[in-house]
């Protein structure tokens, strides 16, 4: 789900409301890891300093950043200037000694540009040798020569840097056990790092508007749809985006929830992509909610057991088995290995555009593992698909969860339906009323 940030292109200045919009979502991304891959074309673009400022904003929100950079454009330009022929500019094909030599030279210059810009923004950074590589070898009968693949990532090293507020910069040059340099593909490096560091987002900044399908930039695309496209019609994807699409799909399949491909030449584009409901480029999303399904009659007893445990601690008002059975069509359950470990219900307020979230419950063993948040996010998406624009929640003990983790705000009695207002007054639980606009 995209979040809220309004970019005013008329004068390129943030309004106070923009900052409030960003701050509202600070808890959602605090201490998350974003891997940001910068194409060489973005480092060479006049908007690059603004990209680094956007990265500084993300760091100020306690988002952990890893930067991976490419050098394709720089390598092509240097070869042209020196009137030499290189074997491959992007680390996807063979790398001969001359190509490697120019790649090392251009990588050093690109690194300096990144470090200078981050220093200007007060960000500590360091180029690392945390990636150990080995030669790719022979592929389809062709010796890839000095092109490398990842053999090992020193996670402890990277995590210590991150914990010390240092932004690691990963070059498309890696070293083998003997210290020999090898050319690596930056799209692949970013993917491997996102998987190894359990990143929340893999972000590719390129000089293309995103992933185009039938001539139009796809704003949101599920992983399943992208996999189908890669399998049946990969030629339809722009050649320079194809590598990113392949590695994004691989990364999401491995557990990273979101990947983004966007145009890094646009002012404020990175922040817009992360904090705007619509976004700027292409967001590829894995199906986080595949373990959530509508409840069935056979689930009544499991839901009743969860509700019964919660009502013992007064976290929830007591509900009878019969009342759950009557409302089973309004429940959704979270299932793991065919066991119900959590539930949520969505109660529409008549013909209005409002519904109430109720019975947001998770078995004790699974609490604190993000199950409750996924249930709420699923309910938000479901409510939106039904044309609703506001959700209400009542809570005696978990108000901080709704506010901090799910973005709800304090509401008032008038936010409840007339029937719920009467029940609220009668039960004496004095629950906090919370609301969120969809």
Structure description:
- The chain has 438 residues and is α/β, with parallel strands linked by helices.
- It folds into two domains: 16-285, 3-Layer(aba) Sandwich (Carbamate kinase), CATH 3.40.1160; 292-437, Gcn5-related N-acetyltransferase (GNAT) (Aminopeptidase, 3-Layer(aba) Sandwich), CATH 3.40.630.
- The chain has 16 helices and 23 strands.
- The chain has an eight-stranded mixed β-sheet, sandwiched between helices. Strands 17-18-19-20-21-23-22 form a seven-stranded mixed β-sheet, sandwiched between helices. A two-stranded antiparallel ribbon has the order 4-7.
- Helix 9 (223-232) packs across helix 10.
Outline the secondary-structure elements.
Elements (H helix, E strand, L loop, with lengths): L15 H8 L2 H4 L3 E6 L1 H4 L4 H13 L3 E6 L2 H11 L14 H24 L4 E3 L3 E5 L2 E2 L2 E2 L4 E6 L1 H9 L3 E4 L2 E3 L5 E3 L2 H11 L4 E6 L5 E2 L2 E2 L2 E3 H10 L6 H15 L4 E6 L5 H7 L6 E4 L6 E3 L5 H13 L8 H6 L4 E6 L2 E10 L5 E9 L8 H15 L4 E6 L3 H7 L3 E2 L7 H10 L4 E6 L1
Parallel strand pairs: 1-2, 1-11, 2-8, 3-8, 11-15, 14-16, 20-21
Antiparallel strand pairs: 4-7, 5-6, 9-10, 12-13, 15-16, 17-18, 18-19, 19-20, 21-23, 22-23
Helix pairs in contact: 5-6, 8-10, 9-10
List the defining traits of the structure above.
438 residues; alpha/beta; Aminopeptidase; 8-stranded mixed β-sheet; 23 strands; 38% helix; elongated
Give me the Rg, rounded: 25 Å
Distance between the termini: 11 Å
Q: Count every beta strand, where a strand is a DSSP E run of 2 or more residues.
A: 23
Tell me about the biggest sheet?
8 strands, mixed
> Under the CATH scheme, which architecture of the largest domain would be assigned?
3-Layer(aba) Sandwich
Percentage of residues in DSSP E strands:
15-25%
Number of helices: 16
CATH superfamily of the largest domain: Acetylglutamate kinase-like
Coarse morphology:
elongated
User: Low-confidence segments, ≥5 residues, pLDDT <50?
Assistant: 1-12
CATH topological fold name of the largest domain: Carbamate kinase
Main sheet: strand order: 3-8-2-1-11-15-16-14
CATH hierarchy class name of the largest domain:
Alpha Beta
Supply the number of structural domains. Answer: 2
């Amino acid at each position: 789900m995209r979040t809220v940030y309004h970019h005013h292109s008329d004068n390129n200045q943030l309004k106070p409301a923009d900052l409030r919009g960003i701050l509202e979502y600070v808890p959602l991304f605090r201490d998350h890891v974003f891997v940001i891959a910068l194409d060489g074309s973005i480092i060479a673009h006049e908007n690059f300093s603004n990209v680094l400022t956007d990265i500084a904003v993300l760091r100020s929100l306690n988002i952990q950043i890893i930067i991976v950079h490419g050098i394709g454009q720089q390598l092509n330009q240097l070869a042209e200037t020196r009137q030499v022929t290189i074997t491959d500019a992007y680390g996807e094909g063979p790398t001969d000694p001359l190509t490697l030599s120019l790649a090392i030279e251009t990588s050093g210059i690109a690194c300096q540009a990144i470090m200078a810009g981050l220093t200007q923004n007060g960000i500590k950074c360091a180029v690392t040798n945390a990636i150990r590589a080995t030669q790719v070898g022979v592929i389809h009968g062709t010796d890839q020569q000095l092109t490398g693949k990842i053999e090992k990532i020193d996670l402890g090293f990277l995590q210590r840097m991150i914990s010390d507020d240092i932004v690691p910069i990963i070059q498309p040059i890696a070293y083998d056990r003997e210290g020999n340099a090898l050319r690596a593909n930056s799209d692949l490096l970013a993917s491997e790092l996102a998987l190894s560091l359990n990143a929340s987002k893999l972000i590719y900044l390129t000089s293309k508007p995103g992933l185009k399908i039938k001539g139009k930039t796809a704003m949101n695309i599920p992983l399943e749809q992208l996999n189908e496209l890669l399998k049946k019609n990969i030629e339809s994807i722009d050649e320079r985006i194809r590598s990113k699409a392949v590695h994004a799909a691989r990364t999401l399949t491995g557990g990273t929830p979101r990947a983004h491909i966007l145009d890094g030449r646009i002012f404020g584009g990175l922040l817009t992509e992360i904090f705007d409901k619509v976004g700027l480029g292409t967001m590829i999303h894995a199906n986080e909610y595949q373990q959530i399904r509508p409840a069935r009659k056979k689930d009544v007893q499991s839901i009743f057991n969860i509700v019964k445990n919660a009502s013992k601690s007064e976290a929830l008002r007591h509900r009878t088995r019969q009342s759950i059975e009557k409302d089973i069509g309004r429940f959704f359950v979270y299932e793991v290995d065919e066991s119900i470990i959590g539930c949520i219900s969505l109660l529409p307020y008549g013909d209005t555009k409002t519904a109430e979230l109720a019975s947001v419950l998770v078995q004790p063993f699974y609490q604190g593992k993000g199950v409750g948040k996924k249930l709420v996010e699923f309910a938000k998406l479901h409510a939106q698909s039904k044309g609703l624009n506001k959700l209400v929640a009542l809570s005696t003990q978990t108000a901080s969860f709704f506010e901090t983790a799910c973005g709800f705000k304090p509401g008032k009695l008038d936010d409840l339906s007339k029937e719920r207002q009467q029940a609220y007054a009668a039960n004496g639980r004095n629950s906090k009323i919370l609301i969120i606009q969809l």
